[in-house]
Amino acid sequence: MDYVRIERNTKIKKGISGTIRFIILGLWALIVLFPFYWMILTSIKSYGSYNSEYIPKLYVTSPTFENYVDAFSAVPLGRYFLNTAIFTIVTTAIMLVVITLAAYAFARLEFKGRGFVFVIFLSLMMIPTELVVITNFVTITNWNMRNSFPGLILPSITSVFYIYLLKENFEQVPDTLYYAAKVDGTSDFKYLLKVLIPISKPTLITVTILKVIECWNSYVWPRLITDDQAYFLVSNGIQEIRENGFGRENIPAMMAAVVVISAPLIVIFLIFRKQIMAGVLRGGTKG
Amino acid sequence: MNNKDSGSSFLKKISEYKGWLYLLPAIIFLGIFMVYPLIDVFVYSFEEGYNFASQSFFGTGMYNYSYVLHDPYFLQAVKNTFIIVIITVPLSTVIALFISVLLSRIEKLRSLFQTIYFLPYVTNTLAVGLVFMILFKKTAYTDGMINLLINAFGGSSVDFIDGPYWAKMTVMCIYTIWIVMPFKILILTSALSSVNPDYYSAARVDGTRPWRIFYRITLPMISPMIFYLVITGFIGAFKAYSDEVALFGVDLNSAGMNTIVGYVYDMLYGDSGGYPSFASAAAILLFIIVLTITVINLMISDSDN
What we know:
Chain A has helices at 2-43, 47-52, 66-73, 77-107, 114-124, 129-142, 149-153, 160-171, 175-183, 188-199, 201-217, 220-225, 234-244, 251-271, 273-281. Chain A is an all-alpha fold.
């Protein structure tokens, strides 16, 4: 009799603490999601109805897509989008080539000074971008590359951390594969291309995704190096929209632009959720 | 015999040359955009009266540092940055720990929550910052969503974006925490899941209370990860800049919300720009601050372990 009561009590207790857990976790989920909900909601409210709501409504009665049309026609949002896509794809592509070659040299090729150069590379990982951005700004200005894609892309390519990550990965591939390939007369380059890269695909995908996120969201360098709207990336575009786009009061159109800019990465995230979270876990920090 | 020897040494030479060849692109990029600027930034910081247009200067010395250290804008930026660091780093770490512990105790919906919590990581800070601005801003048309909440609890409306300093700082800290949480939750959840469950079972058999289990077993086991988060958190918060721009616009000095990094960029470029020497001096001061704090952090974590 007593035993049954105790068991029931613990069950109830467990139930209560479980419910409390879900309430708190749900609350945090709400805090995270609310800004996203708000931007989508506001973006489908008409200009008139948004401004007439002294107390903003949490729902929309007559949704409109007019703001999205405005976002693409009143400001060159399509242009910003295209620029960012070009910047992201080219930067990531060149970076992948550069880091793969470097990681291969460190992991597989033997030459004098390898250890020394690697130590220097590692120590460069600790250098904050803020320290080098000043000279890079001067360099790019002197090369007359302001407001150009090379000016945007060139300083964004280097990434010591990814070289390190990839080198570690290459080193896990057994030596015997390499010697077997050598016996078969495979060249180093072919070995890299046909064996190492396919084996290291997961790491390469991780690096690619992290770099794409970084490029898509980059703000500081593009802002320094571009003042011509034709070369703005989305971050600078959104800032421009904020300062003097649509007229400061057209919040719904602004939110439509925000939705359009945020959507690609969120879609990529939902597709590659596992890879992205694993990649970030392996040491990718933001910014 | 002899022939073979010279052949293998020839091969060796080729492979030596090959290694450098593979490294060449990385070395060129790093050399131009990282090593050279690193030296150059120190040179700039000691060149007095540097003129950007003619690229000439009239002397060397500590004047740039002294100017920056006496600039009220810089001092304001240092103050703002320190407040952001001191508030957001401990608070975000504690909240993240709390949420991660709860997350590790549930099975249902866990991966859904994890996915949701990670979302801010992949969003453009400038874009979402605009949403926060609208939520907190008080305009002629509306008091804004947050003010309505405050009113519902009996408080009176405040303009968080153009209002008093503390109000602006509050939004700043809330937004910063919102942005840094995904990374911390991710790291802590994985640290918690790697704690050997045997410890928990043993403790439970001994009848140890849950709070004590947490304090005596969980916390010590994941403390290296917490230290890692605190250190990277400090470094990240000291470099705060884009989040400020997102909320308060490009002219952070007039909003009184500038940060050290913001000061560096303002000195370099924009309406108040054109002074790479001052920018360099400020960047080096920031680097020294961050380095000092990191070293102190490492010393504390060393003496603890």
